[in-house]
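To the team - 16G complex, inputs and output below.
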Amino acid sequence: DFSTVENKFKHGISPRNPGENLILRPLSSGDFDRGFLQLLTQLTSVGEVSRAMFEDQFNNMKACKNTYYVTVIEDKETNAVIGAASLVCEEKFIHATGKRGRVEDVVVSSDYRGKQLGKVLVAALTFLGKHVGCYKMSLECSDDMVPFYQQLGYIREQNYMQQRF
Ligand code: 16G
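Output:
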């Protein structure tokens, strides 16, 4: 029931109806051939990922019950994956053995920007996180993306720290 998030969109767009010929659905193993990895290169470095590596990782994630909700938008006309984002649910001891939800790897193909598709992806995953019982949702983003996430209910808080290897 996406009705609670549907008022955030213009022109009748919503997670249920992302646009003409577009569908929002979970990642499938066949998305290797629909340009899923090529799409991710628009976000960051993907590296050399063979079909076997992709399938292994797909199965690893699937084996982690209720943890990885990798979601894509497919253009049914071209059979291409043109948007993607993941909800990752992290199990905790705190918050009465609660779950923390993270929005990760949000990307919309350059040809499809300005159609509210990022919003569709993040709103759907935020809704899903709440629905599966996450006590909070969080994400990391660049300064220029702050207003985008604010409109979806995210509040800037604390510091993001990292160390790279
Ligand atoms: C952004 C992404 C994060 C992704 C990272 C990749 C969102 C909300 N944030 O921070 O999920 O993993 O970029 O960049 O999509 P990296 O390759 O520098 O880690």
